[in-house]
Structures are given as structure tokens and as C-alpha cells.
Amino acid sequence: MRKYTLPALSWAATIAFAAVAGAQNCHSTLSQTYKESYMQNSIWPSQYISAPRRAICDTFAMMTNNGWRQHNMLGKYHFNAEGTELSEAGQVKVQWIATQAAPQRRTIYVQQGANAETTSGRLAAVQEYVNNGYPLADQSVNVSETHLRFEGHPASTVDTTFVGFQVNQPAPVLPQTGGESSGE
Predict the structure, then answer these.
(1) What are the structural domain ranges in the chain?
(2) How far is the C-alpha of 82 from the C-alpha of 123, rounded, in Å?
(3) Please, are residues 136 and 98 in contact by the beta-carbon 8 Å criterion?
(4) Which helix (H) or strand (E) holds 73?
(5) In angstroms, rounded to a whole number, what is the distance separating the alpha carbons of residues 35 and 19?
(6) Euclidean distance between CA atoms 105 and 110, whole angstroms
(7) How far apart are CA 59 and CA 69, in angstroms?
(8) What are phi and psi of 111, to 5 degrees?
(9) Does the pLDDT of residue 65 top 90, yes or no?
(10) Across-strand partners of 145?
(11) Is the model more confident about 14 or about 137?
């Protein structure tokens, strides 16, 4: 029985691989296979960096888009009780979106109402308000509905919270210093 050494076996495997690869026209010579392997190893790990970077950039872009959608959303507090006309807060927010938001971010998202009639009434009210004075110059303002919920609070609740906080703050007074010594 003949004993084969590890280098002899690896050389035989390399030749067999080169023969199979040559038959498939993958690599024409053993030196070309070696050269391609060397080139792949010399650029390592750069061929694996772009995919994670792209995933991070895509995630960040998605978070940015979601943030703008949340910021440019009109909810139930931006409409009257029936949900058919913009309230003063809604008009101010539409004006800000139409004039101050970045031009590529001038999309107004309207939260869906309880039913289709309410939603269509909200969309019509916003579209009518936009058409009566906006867009400025030749910039367009898009209006679309969204299924996301507006996470806001009525202005009266926010005002009561902040006023209550200010009213209940203790007066800024320095602590009393007594005639007692501090342990001397």
C-alpha cells in the first residue's frame, strides 16, 4: 500500500480542479486560477463592505422618510369636530408644509377618518385649501392619505400641562444658613 503525503494530495487535487475547470472554460490555466484567487484575497474584505453599508443607508433613509411623514401628517386635531374643514392649527401646519418644508418633502399626509366619507372630506378640505393659495411659484404640494395614526394631543391639554408645571415650581431660594458650625 502506498502512502501519500499531504502536499502530494493537495497538488493532485489542484490539478484535478484545474482540469475540471478547464473543461468548463472557467479557468484556462492553473496560473490564471492562482492569479484570480490572489486578487480576491488581496482585496478582502472590501468586497463584503458595500452590502452592510447599503443596508445601513437604506435603513436610515427609511427612518428619515417615516419621520417626515409623521411630521407632515394632519390628524383629527387639525380638523373641526365633523372632520370636514381644517381648523386654525391645520391651516397653520399646511402653510408651513407648503412654504417651509424642503421642496422634495412637501407632501401632506392626511390621517384616515373613521369611515370613507370622513377621509374623503378631510382630503377634499386640504386639497381645496392648498389650491386656494399654494403652491408658491411653481412648486407642487402633494396631498395623500395615510393609515398611520397621528400621535398628538389637543393644544389645551399641552397648555394646561406646561402652565401647571410653571405654576407649581418652587421659588428659587438659597438654603438657609444657620449659626451652627459644620462639624469643626
Answers:
(1) 30-63, 72-148
(2) 13
(3) yes
(4) strand 73-74
(5) 16
(6) 14
(7) 15
(8) -65, 140
(9) yes
(10) 110
(11) 14
Residue 70: all three cell numbers together: 409623521
Identity of the residue numbered 151? E
ω before 7 within 30° of 0 (cis)? no
Helix, strand, coil shares, percent, the chain, to 5: 55, 10, 35
pLDDT at 24: 57
Q: Does pLDDT of 9 surpass 80?
A: no
The reported pTM is: 0.60
86 with 126: CB under 8 angstroms?
yes
Widest CA span in the chain: 105
Contact of 35 with 29, CB cutoff 8 Å = no
Task: Transcribe 103-156 into DSSP letters.
Answer: GGG-EEEEE--SSHHHHHHHHHHHHHHHHTT-S-TT---EEEEESSPP----HH
Angstrom distance (rounded) from CA 135 to CA 158:
31
